[in-house]
Amino acid sequence: MAASDRIVRWRYRLVPDHLLGEILTKRWVDNTIPVLILIAVAATFGWLISDFFSMSSVSSLMRQWGEFTLIALALMIVMVAGGIDLSVGSTFALGNIVALTLITVAGWSVPAVIAATLACGAFVGLVNGVLVGYLRLRAFLTTLVTLIIVRAIVDMLLLKYSVAIAAGFVDSDLWYYFGEGDVLGVPFSVATALVLALVAHLALSRSRVGWHVLAVGGSRRSAHNVGIPVRRIICMTYVVSGTLAALSGVLFASRLGGAGADTGVGLEIAALTAAVLGGNSLGGGRGSAAKAIIGAIIVMIMVNGLVRIGVTRGGSSLLLGMVLLAAVAIDVRWLKNRHKFLSKVYVSPTYSELPEAPATSGSSPYALNDRLRPVEAIGLDQIDGPEDVILDEDDNIYVGNRTGDIVRFFAPDYTRQEVFVHCGGRPLGMAFARDGSLICCIGGMGLYRITQDRRIERLTDETSRSWFSIIDDSRLRLADDLDIAPDGRIFFSEATIRYEMHEWPVDCLESRGNGRIICFDPRTGTTHTLLKNLVFPNGICMTHDGQSFLFAETWACRVSRYWFEGPKKGTVEVVIADLPGYPDNINRASDGTYWLALVGIRTPSLDLALKMPGFRKRMARRIAPDEWMYPNINTGCIVRFDETGRIIETLWDFGGENHPMITSMREHKGHLYIGGILNNRVGRLKLDGVDPGWTGWKSYWGQS
Amino acid sequence: MIRALGRAFDNLLGRGDAAVTVPPLDGALRPNRLLDETGSRVPLAEVDCLAVHGADLVASAGDSVFAQGAGGEWICRRSYGSAVVGLATIEPDGLAVALDGGDVVVEGGRYDGRRYRADASVTCITAMVVSGSELFLACGSEAHPVAEWQRDLLEGNASGSVWRIDLESGAGARVAGGLAWPAGLAVDRAGLVVSEAWRHQLVRIGLAGGDRRQVLHADLPGYPGRISPASDGHWLAIFAPRSQLVEFVLREPAYRRRMMAEVPKPFWVVPKLRAGRSYYEPLQGGGVKHLGLLKPWAPTMSAGLCVKLDPAFQPRSSLQSRADGHTHGVTSVAEHRGQLVVAARGDGVLVSVPLAGIGRGGRA
């Protein structure tokens, strides 16, 4: 290996490029930019103002923050449903004056005051909600108008009661507790905000109503089409928003006990900045309580920091406005470009050097021939993509197809067919269990059992989640092929955890060990991952000793053997290290050897590209997927080998005209049945000099 | 410095020169299957260039020149010992035959039997055209012979030139240099038109002295080759299509270098006259067969394309063979006795299409 190749190999072994794409598929990645801004803001002000994060400074900031966060939460809930509520500032002021008036002038009891104030806020929200939700007025204009109206009401109340409020005195510890008390050492307002944020988070992420809110914000029309009461949901968000704003007003009233003309002025802009800066999308559908909290912290730090370094009120508003503008711009660009960026960086190739490919001419055991010329076509143009083929003891053929059926062709002439079951997904590898039920790997679904009376049972669709995997690898994405041990355990391969069924050749561009082999134990019903980081593990076949199985790694062009019992338990040994093509399914042959399907032949240009991951990465970014260099899966062949890895014979279709694309083959009573994942037929080839009575089921279960 | 930075930035983001764009087949080049579906087909292995000699249509293939017999079959007229790389008609009854290595031999007419050579450095003749007593010839590259055209493309060479030979005196002179594989020539009243394959364009070169060049048609979706006269305008043979993958590989110097060194030539990622014959050739995503079928729109390294140009050298219509077709690698086109004869070297076949049936907009 050249030195440059070695450097490239280590570079790709040490830097996990694929994680970037995986992180970007996560929803929480939306929080990245807000968190970075938060760190930057905190660092800046902490550096500018020496005692900014001192105990006393923080605790006075905390109470304000609690009240402010409630407003930000209120706005977040409305925004997530696709609306906007500008009246939160006025409602906050209204809550303040109403609470003060009721407690000092009217002399109500504290619980009654709180209930009445919240009802007041809810009423303002209801007015907004009815206008915006039911009468379908524009949210922006409507809440702008309620902002002015409520502000006018507040001014009228102020005129009438401000003197009385200033003169009054409240004799209630409970009342002051709201503004000055602590809960477990945390200021009451902060505790309230955190509890409500938790409630909002759980509601949005875990409850039906929260999902409805998100759905309405994501796409109003789709939400309507699926039967969500869009108008009621929207109305409700405004009611919640008004209530939260009023609650914030109560806390403010309790803390300061005074009402002024400037209470809550400009609060809506600060709250809007907080909500948007936190990453809640203005377009709706994307937002969370955590984002509102992050945004509120940023704005709080900024506003107070600016005041403390002596920026005048006008200057600080100006800065806040600029930040809001920037946040909106980032929001729009991020939303627009995230998917574009993701689609560019998700494919992340790594270094892969394959051993030199053996020749397919001359005296090579892989030499080209036309042994597959006499293949007869079964179900030509009647079957779409039979990846695997299997026959029962009555000689009927079972194949999966692209539309999620398992189709049965009836013996003896296979001209009649029926849909055996419709299981959905993409049926791939199949095997018959001892009791005659069909065990099937279904791409996109998992491992399933189909009993003889056509009942479909799920065996497993998840395995243990890896600790350090970013994408959730517990769910089975692409269960590929399986085989059953004598004790009933089912070993199956999952080809890749990074790609869905229809993108399987793209995994070759990566050539990373994205696949695994999993064991399902029907006795305990448990599933666990046996081998990880395999390069597209595909075919699996029990050896005759009952202690190990052979498995093929497609993009690594090798066949290995794994012992699950016996003295060599847990070890992997390579059986064939250098195949000239990409191995797919492996199955038993009647004489104790094994059939192996090569789905494609290695091309020198791709072999070279596999050693140049940067080239493949740029290719994936620059050119359309249809133009990508692919493994050549148009031509394949069938190989027979024994347990030592010796190649006994190769069956080719010279020219590829008669039977293009081979992914599996199954020997049955002197014939070989051939399947192909993108083919439109099942092939059938008469074999000479083999046991004409041999069947797979007998080989597995016949002796016992 | 700023340009270098700009280039590095472009390379990172795939912009500017690093952007891989291939013009779509549209307008006069809308895809069709006329080459596969119309006309009669006669096989002739390695057929390359066509010319009209007197009353006959002649074709070069391998190291011989063939003429069409009465029954339409092709009969070897003469072998030259080295590959014939171009033919040109000398009015009224002569034929210039260019040989691999740089010699030009004349058959028949006033200059019968004479042998010319433009210059010792001219070893890679790709096309010829005769105007009066002057023979113009295009030399594809200084670095490689004709058969190595793919290597010349991959190396990004632009060492081609156009030469003039006075048939009377035999004197050769260079008309233009620095061309990226000039592969076709045509003469009209305003001068000489050259198809510059690696730059996908048709260029007019002034003959009046000075090296004035004017691009007549740029950004063709394939590599333009020989140009031949038509009753109203010209025919252009496009010998291979451009593809995004090849364009991308051309922007990847490290991969190109290693590919040329480590991968056998037939299996390179490079335009071809005929692709898809071997399973060792590169396959692209869209080229995967589904249900036993190769899609006609599949990305391909070879195709059949000949284009009708109007007198201003703008495409008017085209005859094509798509990815799943069997008339790939069109190297020469000729009009003869009311027929359009197309030489598809990739598939070793000559296709004759009645001229009367070829309409506008690529429809027959």
List the helices and strands and how they pair.
The complex is a heterodimer of chains A (704) and B (364).
Chain A: H1 3-14, H2 18-24, H3 32-48, H4 55-80, H5 88-106, H6 110-134, H7 139-167, H8 173-180, E1 182-183, E2 186-187, H9 188-206, H10 208-218, H11 220-225, H12 230-256, H13 267-277, H14 289-308, H15 313-345, E3 376-378, E4 389-391, E5 397-400, E6 405-409, E7 417-422, E8 426-432, E9 438-443, E10 446-450, E11 456-460, E12 479-484, E13 490-494, H16 506-510, E14 515-521, E15 526-534, E16 537-542, E17 548-553, E18 558-563, E19 572-576, E20 581-588, E21 594-601, H17 604-610, H18 613-622, E22 629-630, E23 637-641, E24 647-652, E25 664-668, E26 671-675, E27 682-686, H19 696-702
Helix pairs in contact in A: 2-15, 3-14, 4-9, 4-12, 4-13, 4-14, 5-6, 5-7, 5-12, 6-7, 6-12, 8-12, 9-10, 10-12, 13-14, 13-15
Chain B: H1 2-13, H2 34-37, E1 40-43, E2 47-53, E3 56-61, E4 64-68, E5 74-79, E6 84-90, E7 94-99, E8 103-107, E9 115-117, E10 125-131, E11 134-139, H3 149-154, E12 160-166, E13 172-179, E14 182-188, E15 191-196, E16 201-205, E17 213-217, E18 222-230, E19 233-241, H4 244-250, H5 253-262, E20 283-284, E21 304-309, E22 315-321, E23 330-336, E24 339-344, E25 349-354
Antiparallel strand pairs in B: 1-25, 2-3, 3-4, 4-5, 6-7, 7-8, 8-9, 10-11, 11-12, 12-13, 14-15, 15-16, 16-17, 18-19, 19-21, 21-22, 23-24, 24-25
Q: Could you please say which CATH topology of chain B applies here?
A: Neuraminidase
- N-to-C series of helices and strands of chain B: HHEEEEEEEEEEEHEEEEEEEEHHEEEEEE
Strand content of chain B: 35-45%
Could you estimate the helical fraction of the residues of chain A in percent? 40-55%
Number of strands of chain B: 25
Shape of chain A: elongated
| Cα Rg of chain B | 20 Å
How large is the radius of gyration of chain A? 34 Å
Tell me the structural class of chain B.
Answer: mainly beta
From the spread of the alpha carbons, the general shape of chain B counts as: globular
What's the overall average pLDDT of chain A, rounded? 89
Greatest contact between two chains: A-B, 38 and 36 residues
* Oligomerization state: heterodimer
Adjacency order of strands in the biggest sheet of chain A: 3-27-26-25
CATH topology group of the largest domain in chain A: ABC transporter involved in vitamin B12 uptake, BtuC
- Outline the low-pLDDT stretches of chain A: none
Find the structural class of chain A using helix and strand composition: alpha+beta
